[in-house]
Design brief:
Blueprint: E1 4-7, H1 12-25, E2 30-34, H2 40-43, E3 48-50, H3 56-65, E4 70-73, H4 79-84, H5 86-107, E5 111-113, E6 116-117, H6 141-160, E7 164-165, E8 167-169, E9 171-173, H7 186-196, E10 200-202, E11 210-214, H8 215-227, E12 239-240, E13 244-246, H9 248-259, E14 265-267, H10 291-294
Amino acid sequence: MEKILVIGCSGQIGSELTLELRNRYGDQNVIATDIRPAPAEIAETGKFEILDVMDTAKLQLILEHERITQVYHLAAILSGNAEKRPLASWDINMKSLINVLELARELKIKKVFWPSSIAVFGPTTPRYNTPQFTIMEPNTVYGISKLAGERWIEYYYQKYGVDTRSLRYPGLISYKTEAGGGTTDYAVEIFYEAVRKKKYECFLGPQSDLPMMFMSDAIKATIDLMEADASALSLRSSYNVGGICFNPQQLRNTSLNLRSPTSPISARPLQIPGLPASMTPWPARTGDLPASTIFLKWLN
């Protein structure tokens, strides 16, 4: 029987992933943790503990006491917030990953999932149908940490045999949990702010196309990857996953216009060294070969 630990269960991904894992593996077999209180639906359906992932001793205690076999490490400071606190964000994002990997090595945890992101790409990356293997020159703190993280998880697989698995998520769209400071989170925040303030200030310019994915598809892809036979996986860094593509102006002119036709959008671009304010450093659409031929249960 699998015993699963979710680190970061209160976030946008964790809040929905935890419930789906409990649905599949049983409420008692999925332990949820976060540095902040869990949503009621998670706290009331299974075990929850407050955990700062930087607290290695407590993390080890939970892993050993609960006899954990799989870890989903979702805790991170996302792209928009990371640009405001670059050094602290690097420290948290990287040290927390190393904590998990080291304990997985020492305790022989069967599988570790860690999310990467399209932020690993940069302004020199081909923007459309971005292939799995291409130029990767991230110029955001979040992207730099994700690229480094990809190298670390592959290293732990090759050096120590830790079964690490990862997806490069595009922007994720969910109505259940409010966005947490990522650049692509505008696609959700824009609706909340239109209702609250009748206006929205976006990190992106109006024509900045970015790839997006519905949360339900992201959860399915994540579990498909974790349930795939290890021998079938060709990568231990991170897999591209595809999605849809749109920009803030398109969203404003279609969906939002139906809800709040008078809500204006203004741009407040991220301050990224060497990148003109009108540009976005990430792909507009990613290709998801080889993932779609190995473990994803849908076609492009």
